[in-house]
């Protein structure tokens, strides 16, 4: 299974690799966004505070990575 595709291949297929699942503005803290990888189903949490930010896999209460079911796997 190929997880990384060239930009042109993704654009031709008309799909986006990552989609925004949720965005929240937190007072005095900044913005939090949850992104979902449409190939693997892995959820990522992205934070943006002032002029800096970060991204990391989203984990549940047991420390397991949150993974959504994907309807299809791209090759």
Would you write up a description of this structure?
With 75 residues, this protein is mostly beta strands. It has one helix spanning 7-13; strands at residues 18-26, 30-37, 43-49, 52-57. A four-stranded antiparallel beta sheet has the order 1-2-3-4, with no helix packed on it.
Beta-strand residue fraction:
35-45%
The main sheet comes to: 4 strands, antiparallel
> Radius of gyration, Cα only, in angstroms?
14 Å
What structural category do the secondary elements indicate? Answer: mainly beta
Characterize the overall form: globular
Walk me through the topology.
Elements: H1 7-13, E1 18-26, E2 30-37, E3 43-49, E4 52-57
Antiparallel strand pairs: 1-2, 2-3, 3-4
Relevant terms:
single chain; 75 residues; mainly beta; four-stranded antiparallel β-sheet; 1 helix; globular
Outline of the structure:
This protein is mainly β and about 80 residues long.
């Amino acid at each position: 299974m190929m997880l990384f595709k060239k930009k042109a291949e993704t654009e031709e297929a008309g799909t986006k690799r990552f989609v925004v699942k949720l965005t929240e503005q937190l007072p005095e803290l900044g913005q939090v966004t949850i992104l979902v990888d449409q190939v693997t189903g892995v959820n990522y949490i992205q934070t943006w505070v002032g002029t800096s930010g970060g991204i990391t896999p989203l984990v549940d209460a047991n420390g397991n990575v949150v993974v959504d079911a994907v309807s299809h796997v791209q090759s």
